[in-house]
Specification:
With 278 residues, the protein is mainly alpha-helical. It has one domain (2-260). 73% of the residues lie in helices and 0% in strands.
Length: 278
């Protein structure tokens, strides 16, 4: 439940912030009446995301044996890639996101194209929505659909509430700290997904076992217990991992955290972007 909450909270807040920048710029320039296409693009993106999520779940439901293992492993690897991209993108692109979005909105307004505004909103929301749908599929491999859905809905509610408060001018949330903390947590979640993807590919005989079980801690904390499932979903706990799973987990975690904590830091989202040279 915690991992889906974390992902939908962060991805939902990213989408809310971008939509908030678009809507605030429309309000500030006296174009609030042009917000209809933005909401239309947002609604269409939500629908596409739901359809994409349903297709993933229905597809895996039709598979069994090796085909299911390959599909699940591939989906887990793709989820890891998307989570990594999400963290890196927010870290490096956020400093100019406000200025860039405002320029795009201004260009759309000059052209008089409602389609351009709708497309901006659609691209933002559908990217986050498909990432979330894929992660939901990955998270249900270690927790029940009910737990994943409850956590995801809570995350979305919190994200919308935070996004609205920032749109209304609140500065109570330290966004830099928020994205730093959630970035580290998502890296840990992604490491667990990567290890599970490796396990699925080993089950499908696409990766070697090398050492099938490095250790076993199920006698101390069974991964099927309530706490075991919680830790599996959050940090990728495995009571009896293979050597390749351990190596993949440690290598990804060490590399990603070293990169993430390197000296370059993102600019705060509640500050205007850098001034451009004339």
């Amino acid at each position: 439940m915690v991992a889906p909450l974390l992902v939908t909270l962060r991805e939902g807040l990213e989408a809310s912030l971008i939509l908030g920048i678009i809507m605030a710029y429309l309000d500030r320039t006296g174009n609030a009446h042009r917000s209809g296409p933005v909401w239309a693009g947002t609604g269409l993106a939500v629908l596409v995301s739901l359809v994409a999520g349903a297709m993933v779940f229905f597809t895996v439901g039709e598979l069994n044996g090796t085909g299911e293992q390959i599909f699940e492993g591939s989906a887990l690897f793709l989820a890891v890639a998307m989570l990594a991209y999400m963290v890196v993108w927010m870290r490096h692109q956020v400093s100019g996101i406000r200025v860039g979005l405002q320029e795009k909105v201004q260009a759309a307004l000059r052209s008089g194209s409602g389609v351009a505004l709708a497309l901006m909103a659609f691209v933002v929301v559908v990217r986050e929505g498909i990432e979330t749908a894929l992660f939901f599929f990955a998270s249900t491999r270690s927790s029940s659909p009910l737990e994943s859905t409850a956590g995801g809905l809570l995350g979305l509610i919190f994200a919308v509430a935070l996004g609205y408060s920032l749109y209304r001018g609140s500065r109570g949330l330290n966004l830099r700290a928020f994205f730093d903390v959630t970035g580290v947590l998502l890296i840990i979640v992604a490491a667990g997904l990567l290890a599970r993807g490796v396990h699925e590919f080993q089950e499908a005989a696409l990766l070697p076992q090398i050492v099938e079980h490095v250790w076993s801690t199920n006698w101390l904390l069974n991964e099927e217990s309530t706490m075991g499932r919680f830790l599996t979903a959050l940090v990728g706990y495995n009571g009896s991992p293979s050597l390749l799973e351990v190596l993949a987990y440690v290598a990804y975690l060490a590399t990603s955290l070293t990169y993430f904590r390197s000296p370059e830091r993102p600019q705060r989202l509640d500050q205007p972007g850098p001034k451009r040279a004339a």
